[in-house]
Amino acid sequence: MRFNQSDRLKKLPVYLFAEIDKLKSQVKARGVDIISFGIGDPDLPTPEAIVEVLKKESEIAVNQKYPSYEGLLKFRESVSNWYNKRFNVSLDPETEVLSLIGSKEGIGHLPLAFVNPGDVVLIPDPGYPVYRAGTIFAGGIPYIMPLKEENDFLPDFSDIPEDILKKAKLMFLNYPNNPTSAVADRHFFNEVVKFAKKNKIIVAHDFAYSEVYTGEKGNDSFLEANGAKEIGIEFHSLSKTFNMTGFRIGFAAGNEEIINGLGAVKTNLDSGVFQAIQLAGAYGLDNELKAVEDNNKIYKKRRELLVGGLEKLGYKVYKSDATFYVWTHVPKANMTSKEFAVSLLNETGIIVTPGSGFGGYGEGYIRFSLTISENRIKEALVRMGG
Ligand SMILES: *Cc1c(COP(=O)(O)O)cnc(C)c1O
Q1: How far is the CA of 106 from the centre of ligand 1 (A)?
Q2: Of the residues 125, 175, 178, 249, which should be mutated to test ligand 1's pocket, given the most ligand atoms within 8 Å of the CB?
């Protein structure tokens, strides 16, 4: 029997990494030791104490039941306390925080709450593919905001035509940015709030890398901007902060009405986050910020090693202190990012992610993840130089 997939599935962009995945298997079959800079999943372990809380709490009967839809109040209070300490932003844990089964889930579901068929959603390019997928699933029309190096990979709102602004309901932003590693400061977020209020566009700021930085100063939160809570929410993840990608826990914080809308969608589709995981996450936010510092020291060393080595090899690297990504120009002028990634894998067994996989404006760049050890980075640099 043949089943026709829905139009919404057919509208998704083709999976650009399929060819590289296939080639990877072939190269591996030749016996080559693959070094992958392609993985956006921390190699460092979840802090032990967090895992202990999960173990203990999973044995308690009440935690084995359906959780509450909006999340345990204890988790939401920990979020609120952490926001206060970290950003000096106050959030009502009862109404302005929502637990998520990972932030990807919330990002993908948000358009279902506020976007009607034909409405426009502003999405950054290059960008995390879920903004587009969530938009398409809701029947919305993605409108690309190009992120260009000459603007430090920040969107230029003055480029967006008036008729698009009239139809735009929602805008996704993501800083520190995946894949470019670019950051945004409070000044930019103040501009975002002004622009969004003027045009009545909901802002959804994806802050997955909030705690991943190697510079002196932590990253700014969108919710620190004047009036941000009137127009937007911020998505957070414990995945990158505490190396908890497998646990599936994140949260949304900010405007009560927007949080409510997202919550209403979720009530109809899922049944919340396993309570033992929420308690483990709350423990992390309350007690494990030292682990975050230790991670960042490791990323800093890896970043310095890789960036220094790439520059010696003639790569033009975009300089940043945030995320665990290194974003660089394709070093060969006559090759697309995909062609370069394919030839690098074939010749050296090294995997990098072609920028075009994140959208058309990612063409000309490749992304390295700093999720492998210094020794492997050194080995890769030797291979690339040889
Ligand atoms: C990793 C990542 C997320 C999602 O993380 P979850 O594990 O779903 O919480 C969201 N946005 C970006 C840009 C990411 O890189």
Answers
A1: 10
A2: 178
Residue with tokens 């925080």: 97
Q: Taking Cα atoms as reference points, which of 281, 236, 280 lies closest to residue 259?
A: 236
Contact present, 181 and 175 (Cβ < 8 Å) = no
Provide the 10 A C-beta neighbour count for residue 85. 11
**DSSP per-residue string spanning 58-80:** HTSGGGGSPPPTT--HHHHHHHH
Atom number, ligand 1, closest to the C-alpha of residue 128: 13
Maximum pairwise Cα distance, the chain:
62
Q: Write out pLDDT tens, residues 74-88.
A: 999 999 999 999 999
Any ligand 1 atom below 6 A from CB of 124: no
Query: What domains are there in the chain, each with its CATH number?
Result: 7-45+290-383 (3.90.1150.10), 48-288 (3.40.640.10)
Contact 148, 364 (CB under 8 A): no
Give the closest residue (by CA) to ligand 1 atom 14: 208
**What is the pTM for the complete model shown?**
0.96
Distance in Å, CA 104 to ligand 1 centroid: 6
For residue range 13-69, list pLDDT tens digits in order.
Answer: 877 777 888 899 999 999 999 999 998 899 999 999 999 999 999 999 999 999 988
Candidates 41, 99, 181, 240: which one to mutate for ligand 1, based on the most atoms within 8 Å of Cβ?
Answer: 240
